[in-house]
UniProtKB/TrEMBL annotation:
The family this protein is said to belong to: Belongs to the FAD-binding oxidoreductase/transferase type 4 family.
The EC number(s) this enzyme carries: 1.-.-.-
Protein name: Putative FAD-linked oxidoreductase
Organism placement in taxonomy: Bacteria, Pseudomonadati, Pseudomonadota, Alphaproteobacteria, Hyphomicrobiales
PROSITE patterns listed in its UniProt record: FAD_PCMH
Length: 480
């Protein structure tokens, strides 16, 4: 825990602004002794310089806080659950105000007939899922960080997660937004409409904007029927090409009900078994790659297990898969998912890694992996493979570990070279250097190499028109 003065007492801000924020927010709305909770990102990769933390409790308070900062010319950084992996929720310079949405967590409306829930931005993803379940509905966004991340953060990063294959990313789940603009005006766009052809779809500009165009304060979210049936399998495959053939098989047998198709390398499973007590491999032998497949649907319980078993039997016959296990109970299903959801912890246990959150067309994943593995092995001898992710979306967390025994500083020195090699291959295959984590402070400079001047100019123009003073999360997406 850092000292109060390190976190930010606000001393570096104009005294007038501190007084004004104190008057707007009251005692519980301003934090000067926040410890590492707001100032440090998940896992400690990014640390904020001294910054005051404002915790508004209503949209009106967010608007007044933003207006006060804008008038004082002070930069603001919106923060949700602070689980982001690109450093977007940490200021990059001193004298900023972090605006945390954590006190805004009410359900404003729940309409099971319209299949929508309207929630404030600070509600955690797990709470949204739980409130939907109370009325027998599904909110299908699902991430390993769902207990802490907030819906405002999910929308601002356009989060993907483990069910994106079937339901799409956060962008597909919002029907309307309420946003505080960088000058403090409130845009009330909380419409629960499936159809609205009245001009530009403004909400989509704020989704995936990482807090650079305004602060999302509430959202109307789309709900779906809750599945009655599920089937989950853990499968060993010889290589990524076989995993893709299995995806095709699974689609043919399970159709629309295919919900998740996750992969991990052998080394990733090995590290989960080390890092997470109580985990066990479903197989006696080690295999090069593993796939976790899940299907969910509305049919009679057991229907999907039958279809999944058929798909696996056919795949075994075709020698696409080497071994497979089908969960026979909810407890077994949870144990299989723990192997996938434990990847972030496994990576921490394994040592210092070089992270890449890339996407390529699904068909190009095996080529990407083969080319990246070969190029890194040649350029950086001793580098160790570590890759997992959402194969069904073409999104791989390609996070090789530094050579055994290398220090944090030694691995950090390898990072720029490794990034260049991996991201150039991704670009060559028509991919993206950030599939679901966003650019944050991590990739904002780097992405300029991969975006055309026309694309960069459009983004800069958009930023200028919403935030001419450049005060809303400066240095993210568009260079400060
Ligand atoms: C263990 C683990 C697993 C993860 N798995 C996944 C995964 O499968 N898929 C995935 O996509 N991500 C994943 N993530 C990353 C992260 O959880 C997501 O990016 C999440 O959407 C961030 O939400 P948050 O509330 O924590 O946002 P923060 O980290 O607080 O903020 C992220 C960005 O959004 C902005 N922001 C936050 N709230 C608002 C708001 N109300 N208005 C405007 N801007 C705002 C911030 O300024 C910042 O730029 C994972 C992270 C961890 C730690």
């Amino acid at each position: 825990m850092r000292a109060v003065s390190d976190v930010g007492s606000g001393a570096e801000l104009p005294a007038q602004l501190r007084d004004r924020l104190g008057a707007i927010l009251g005692a519980q709305g301003l934090v000067a002794d926040a410890g590492t909770r707001y100032g440090e990102s998940w896992g400690g990769a990014f640390t904020a310089p001294p910054s005051l933390v404002a915790r508004p409790g209503s949209t009106a308070e967010v608007a007044a806080t933003v207006a006060a900062c804008a008038e004082a010319g002070v930069a603001m950084v919106p923060q949700g659950g602070n689980t982001g992996l690109a450093g977007g929720a940490q200021p990059t310079r001193p004298g900023c105000v972090i605006i945390s949405l954590e006190r805004m967590r009410a359900v404003r409306a729940l309409d099971p007939v319209n299949d929508t829930i309207t929630v404030e931005a600070g509600m955690t993803l797990a709470e949204v899922q739980a409130r939907a379940a109370e009325v027998d509905r599904l909110f299908p966004l699902s991430l390993a960080s769902e207990g802490s991340c907030q819906i405002g953060g999910n929308l601002s990063t356009n989060a993907g997660g483990t069910q994106c294959l079937r339901y799409g990313n956060a962008r597909a789940m919002a029907l309307g937004l309420e946003v505080v603009l960088p000058d403090g005006q409130i845009w009330e766009g909380l419409r629960g409409l499936r159809k609205d052809a009245t001009g530009y779809d403004l909400k989509q500009l704020f989704i995936g904007a990482e807090g650079t165009l305004g602060i999302i304060t509430a959202a109307v979210l789309r709900l779906l029927p809750r599945p009655r049936d599920a089937a989950t399998a853990f499968v060993a495959v010889p290589d990524p090409a076989a995993a893709l053939r299995l995806l095709d098989r699974a689609r043919r047998h399970l159709g629309e009900s295919l919900t998740g198709f996750e992969v991990m390398r052998r080394e990733c499973l090995d590290w989960v078994l080390v890092a997470l007590p109580g985990t066990a491999s479903p197989f006696a032998e080690r295999h090069p790659w593993y796939v976790l497949i899940e299907a969910t649907g509305q049919g009679a319980p057991g229907t999907l297990a039958g279809l999944m078993a058929e798909a696996l039997a056919a795949a075994l016959e075709e020698e696409i898969v080497s071994d497979a296990t089908l969960a026979a109970s909810e407890a077994q299903r949870r144990r299989l998912w723990a192997l996938r959801e434990g990847q972030a912890e496994a990576q921490k246990a394994a040592g210092f890694g070089i992270k890449h959150d890339v996407s390529v067309p699904v068909s190009a994943v095996p080529t990407f992996l083969a080319r990246a593995d070969a190029a890194l092995a040649a350029a950086l001898p001793g580098i160790r493979p570590f890759a997992f992710g959402h194969l069904g979306d073409g999104n791989i967390h390609y996070n090789p570990l530094g050579p055994a025994g290398a220090s944090a500083a030694e691995v950090a020195a390898l990072r720029p070279g490794a990034n260049r090699i991996v991201h150039d291959i991704v670009a060559d295959l028509g991919g993206s250097i950030s599939a679901e984590h966003g650019l944050g402070q991590l990739r904002t400079e780097e992405v300029r190499r991969y975006k055309s001047p026309v694309e960069q100019a459009m983004m800069a123009a958009l930023k200028r028109s919403f935030d001419p003073k450049g005060l809303m999360n400066p240095g993210t997406i568009v260079p400060a």
